[in-house]
Specification:
Distance between the termini of chain A: 67 Å
Order of helices and strands of chain B: HEEHEHHEHEHEHHEHHE
CATH topology of chain B: Rossmann fold
Oligomer: heterodimer
Largest sheet of chain A: 7 strands, mixed
Strand content of chain A: 15-25%
Structural class of chain B: alpha/beta
Helix content of chain A: 25-40%
Strand order of the largest sheet of chain A: 3-2-4-5-7-6-13
Distance between the termini of chain B: 72 Å
Number of strands of chain A: 15
Helix content of chain B: 25-40%
Strand content of chain B: 15-25%
CATH class of chain B: Alpha Beta
Number of domains of chain B: 1
Radius of gyration of chain B: 19 Å
Chain lengths: 384, 272
């Protein structure tokens, strides 16, 4: 028996002073996560450790895989068998997991991956893996990546990650960072009936009528339970609506247009942003994750010195919130991308701003979050 | 009009996914047949099964079966199965893996699934090389064999996958060959009935790759004869010197014991 009788509450309603990594665990459990597999790696270990205690106590299954590959594929197996499944890793571990992410994306299997980004081989803060998380695996697919900036968002966004995974039948990444993962802050967990939960749609059709991968353009197919006679082939290979391996170029085109389109073309339902001081802004900072915090401080410093600055904080990094960024770009003179790496996502922002406004970058790649003063000094440099 | 006779085992086949892609004379078709025969003779309900295949020729077997199937990623069959069995232990899982899939890229998963006693049946079709990719050397390729990546003969000693599984803690392990269909079917039947990690290795002919390069013959019959010439039962093997036994395939059931099956971490009420 995988599951024992629950003996602890799933949702720890109340006010806490909690570690970011623990908040992710509580968010997952609140969202209905009942399968966790992970492999030790710093700075994500607190997630596995708390899961190993909490998951069996709420009646779910916990496994420490022999490696990242076991963990990521166990997620797909569990999810296809009906579980809400999550793993947690850090940058180097995410490398290995790309393989299993490709499978989940190709077979439209909902799974949630927490990537606590760290510097290569060390545990300093970084956002260096932002591009890897989008398209690191082979083949055509689109990811949903959601970037918390605080312990509260670590909880809230993990709930959303599960909901998005279920709704779009896609892997979803919670893009955490060392900074947020190992920080303690106030966390408010609402009562469980106030937490919105989305579950994947299962087919009501009988097996003889069921077409496993049939969906309208940019749509999501209905799932079928495993081992109940639906006889679905979940193959990573190009497949037709019946799931059969199909090398017909037209089928290939239709499949990949749909599994990428269901994310891209629904971006305005998936993406949310938060705006600060943007109403009359002439200079807009755009930031995500932990960098949004010093960016907001820098905006307020700029305001005090008479610069009409504002901040667009991206909750969802992938799919690219094209329309949100363009809307800001149309209304300002300049956009400043703030990022903790050599400047990767900045190129995507600049692509959106092209022809609409000027652009500049505040990038820092030293294993440290920007200080507000550093960003403010860049503002003064680029705003003349 | 003449009545068309249909193989009664065709009810276990997904007609939509035919024709199959196995080469003429390949042992994979035989093993598919052995499996369906075993299921039929045991009176098991195939439609409840989940079939898993990784990548390779053998991995295609579940693609043609009337089951839910996971397919297409190299070596991760047991990782998928871990997630399935921990979520729903009632679903019977059968894995079809080639020697490259199970013992090379998937070797780590093999030893750990065996160690945990994951409750699945693994049917290993060992054709002694990487066949789908064109006949490269595998960890199972007999020493000194010529393959597409060992033109001067393989410099490595081969794995005995049954011994690896036994050492790792597998609770049911046997080996047969495609040259001995009846005992192979019986071995699969016993593995399917076993509660816990069961491995049936079936040494199989690959006339297209291993046959042509290592045995210098593309004839399936020649490959089968080569396998049969090297096959000995366990009792025959005991009479051989270690030197005589070196290049032989020892057939039979090596382990059949009961141990608690793996169920992941649990909180037991009133634990002792």
């Amino acid at each position: 028996m995988a599951a024992s009788k629950p003996r602890e509450k799933r949702v720890l309603t109340g006010v806490h002073f909690m570690l970011g990594n623990y908040a992710i665990v509580e968010g997952a459990l609140a969202a209905g996560c009942n399968f966790f597999a992970g492999y030790p790696i710093t700075p994500a270990n607190e997630i596995s450790e708390r899961m190993s205690e909490r998951m069996p106590a709420v009646g779910g299954a916990f496994v420490q895989g022999e490696d990242e590959l076991c963990s990521i594929y166990a997620l797909s197996g569990a999810s296809l068998a009906g579980a809400k499944a999550m793993t947690a890793t850090a940058s180097a571990g995410y490398n290995y997991m790309q393989e299993g992410i490709e499978y989940a994306a190709a077979t439209e299997t909902p799974i949630v991956i927490v990537d606590v980004q760290r510097c290569r081989g060390e545990n300093f803060a970084t956002q260096a893996d932002v591009m890897q998380m989008r398209w690191g695996a082979a083949g055509d697919y689109e990811m949903i990546c959601i970037a918390p900036s605080s312990v509260q968002e670590s909880f809230d966004f993990t709930v959303r990650a599960f909901n998005l995974a279920e709704e779009y039948r896609n892997p979803v990444v919670v893009m955490s960072e060392t900074t947020i993962a190992l920080m303690r802050e106030r966390l408010v967990i609402p009562p469980d009936d106030q937490i919105a939960i989305v579950n994947r749609k299962y087919t009501k059709l009988n097996p003889d009528k069921y077409r496993p991968f049939a969906a309208p353009p940019n749509g999501v197919p209905e799932a079928a339970p495993l081992g109940k006679g639906y006889h679905t082939l979940y193959s990573i290979n190009p497949h037709d609506e019946m799931g059969g391996i199909d090398w017909n170029p037209e089928e290939y085109d239709r499949l990949y247009k749909r599994i990428t389109g269901k994310i891209r073309e629904n971006r305005n339902k998936i993406c949310t942003t938060q705006s600060f001081h943007l109403d009359d802004a002439e200079l807009a900072l755009i930031a995500y994750g932990s960098e949004a915090r010093p960016a907001l401080d820098a905006v307020e410093m700029a305001r005090e010195s008479g610069i009409k600055a504002g901040l667009l904080k991206l909750d969802v990094v992938w799919p690219l919130p094209e329309d949100h960024i363009k809307e800001v770009a149309r209304n300002v003179k300049k956009v400043l991308s703030v990022e903790m790496n050599i400047g990767k996502y900045a190129a995507e922002i600049e692509r959106m701003c092209c022809g609409l406004c000027e652009t500049a970058r505040a990038t820092k790649n030293k294993g440290l979050v920007h200080s507000p003063e550093e960003i403010y000094s860049t503002i003064k440099e680029v705003w003349r | 009009m003449e009545e068309v006779k249909v193989n009664p085992l065709r009810k276990g086949i997904k007609n939509d996914n035919l024709p199959h892609f196995f080469c003429p004379g390949c042992g994979c078709g035989q093993v598919l047949n052995f499996f369906l025969t075993a299921i039929d003779e045991l009176g098991m309900d195939l439609s409840k099964f989940v079939g898993i295949g990784g990548v390779g020729c053998t991995a295609r077997i579940p693609v043609y079966l009337n089951v839910d199937a996971l397919h297409g990623v190299h070596g991760r069959t047991l990782a998928w199965a871990t997630g399935i069995k921990l979520t729903n232990p009632e679903i019977p899982v059968v894995i079809f893996a080639g020697d490259g899939d199970l013992a090379s890229i998937g070797g780590n998963h093999l030893i750990h699934a065996a160690r945990r006693n994951l409750d699945v049946t693994v049917i290993l079709v060992n054709n002694l090389n990487f066949a789908m990719t064109g006949g490269q050397v595998a960890p199972t390729t007999p020493g000194h064999s010529v393959t597409m990546t060992t033109p001067y003969g393989s410099p490595e000693p081969p794995f005995d996958i049954c011994e690896v599984a036994i050492a790792a803690g597998a609770t049911h392990v046997s080996r047969q060959t495609t040259a001995r269909p009846v005992v192979a079917i019986n071995a699969i039947k016993r593995a399917l009935q076993h509660k816990g990690f069961s491995l049936v290795e079936i040494i199989s002919q690959c006339p297209t790759q291993f046959g042509r390069y290592a045995l210098k013959s593309g004839s399936p019959l020649r490959s089968l004869k080569w396998i049969e010439e090297r096959s000995v039962t366990q009792s025959q093997a005991q009479k051989l010197t270690p030197e005589e036994r070196k290049d032989k395939f020892v057939l039979g059931q090596f382990v059949d014991i009961q141990k608690p099956v793996y169920a992941g971490s649990s909180v037991y009420e009133g634990e002792s």
